[in-house]
Amino acid sequence: MATENGFSGKMFEWLESIISCELPYDTGPVPEMSAEQAQKPLRDAQEMDPRLETPPQAAEMDEVSFKHEFTEFLSRLAVECNWHIHNNTCFKHLKNGEQRDDTTCRMRLDGSTQDVTTIDLETGSIELRRWRGCVNNFTDLILFLMQCNTDTQFIGSGEAAKATVFYTTEYVTKSDLPLHIGLQALDYATKMYEANAEAQPSMAVDKGERNLITKTVNAIMGKQEMSHQQVMSYLVGGGDYYASHTFHVFKWFEFVNAMQKLEDQTLLIEEGGESSAEDESGQTEFDDQVTVSISAGKLEISSDLQDYSLRPSDIHFDPLCLWEFIESTVKEKGEMDVPNDNINPMKNTNCMVEQ
User: Fold this and answer.
1) What is residue 143's predicted lDDT score, i.e. its pLDDT?
2) If we measure between CA atoms, which residue out of 254, 347, 263, 246 comes closest to residue 309?
3) Contacts (Cβ under 8 Å, ≥6 apart) of 147
4) Dihedral angle over CA of 21, 22, 23, 27, nearest 10
5) In a 3-state reduction of DSSP, which class is residue 167?
6) Pairing between strand 329-335 and 348-354?
7) Which residues face 138 on adjacent strands?
């Protein structure tokens, strides 16, 4: 195509009619020689945001008037939606201390302009004309109808098509954590664990190992991203995830702390000390956390740890391990049959029901 001037000219003309890198009224490159020239034009305080405004309607005006209103409205949309301003997302892959400016923006909008469309003879790729260095590619009709930020790209090769499919799938799902992000999170968790170990040299080995696992999981989960589709589904009331099963909240740390206390008390007894982990009836006591809810003048207290340790002794509940108990039981509000309501604040409480 590079040697066929007639064909390449028609190809360039077709692409330029679909993909715009300038404002509708531009007639040539608009160099940005200073920060002021690259700054996004400000909208008047009394002017309505075009993204929220009803667009011109072809049925309500003649062809000439609609063409004028279409161009005016499109110009405002292009400035509001597709005028690029650098933010943290542009530099999220840079390391601390690396320069953050036009040359390192990952969107590759560095303010440079190009007068005409050309072909890169080394790669064979088509480089579209760019009359505005800060305006992202858009298609007139799509921007007019969608009234939001758009990015129109020409896919001219098999490699580009495969890269586009891969990018789109990864962007929509965001299911897997990239290896380099996971390693960064693991490195951060390890450094935090080492700092904590230096501050607490007497910390038990098993407790330190659990602490490392907790910090690792938290660091990795903190690096997970949510897709645009998940966010929008949540905002419109559709929920932020879809699942074929229901899941129960499990406060793992409460049980870990309880078992740690029990192990400490057992070790103390073996060494000849006295244990304070049992009450007068011989049952093990735990310093667990409880959830207190106050609504309509009623006080409700619940504890996952007590729910399991004080579960009924009948055949439906007693044999259940912790995992099975969390998985197969639910709480239902009810009232206990107590002899004196005045002295028992726990009359309104929860009961366990096997699923």
Assistant:
1) 94
2) 254
3) 50, 51, 55, 77, 81
4) -140
5) helix
6) antiparallel
7) 20
Q: Which residues lie below 8 Å from residue 127, measured CB to CB, with a gap of 6+?
A: 114, 117, 118, 119, 120
What kind and span of H or E run contains 219?
helix 205-222
269 within 8 A of 275, measured Cβ to Cβ: yes
Dihedral over alpha carbons 188, 189, 191, 194 (to 10 degrees): 180
Given a contact cutoff of 8 angstroms between Cβ atoms, the answer to whether 67 and 168 are in contact is no
pLDDT in tens, 46-98: 889 999 999 999 999 999 999 999 999 999 999 999 998 888 888 888 888 88
For residues 308 and 291, give the distance between their C-alpha atoms in angstroms, rounded to a whole number.
15
- Average of pLDDT values for 129-155? 91
Query: What is the distance between the alpha carbons of residues 48 and 164, in angstroms, rounded to a whole number?
Result: 35
Residues 6+ apart with CB under 8 A from 54: none
DSSP sequence for 20-71: BSS-TT--S-----SHHHHSPPPPPTTSPPTTTSPPP-GGGS-HHHHHHHHH
Q: Which of 117, 143, 154, 155 is nearest to 23 (CA)?
A: 143
- Tokens 């077709």 sit at which residue? 14
DSSP state of 133: T
* Amino acid making up residue 71: T
Query: 3-class DSSP state for residue 300?
Result: strand
The whole-angstrom separation of Cα 3 and Cα 1 is: 5
Mean pLDDT of the chain: 78
Could you tell me whether strands 348-354 and 291-295 are parallel, antiparallel, or unpaired per DSSP bridges?
unpaired
pLDDT for the residue numbered 95: 84
**For the chain, how are helix, strand and coil distributed in percent, rounded to 5?**
45, 10, 45
Q: Two tokens at 283?
A: 């049952």
For residues 156 and 126, the answer to whether their CB atoms sit within 8 Å is yes
Residue 202 pLDDT > 70, yes or no?
yes
Pairing of strands 348-354, 298-302: unpaired
Per residue in 306-330, pLDDT tens?
Answer: 888 888 888 888 888 888 888 888 8
Tokens of 176: 């897997």
**Span 222-267, pLDDT tens digits:** 666 666 666 777 777 776 566 677 777 778 888 888 888 888 888 8
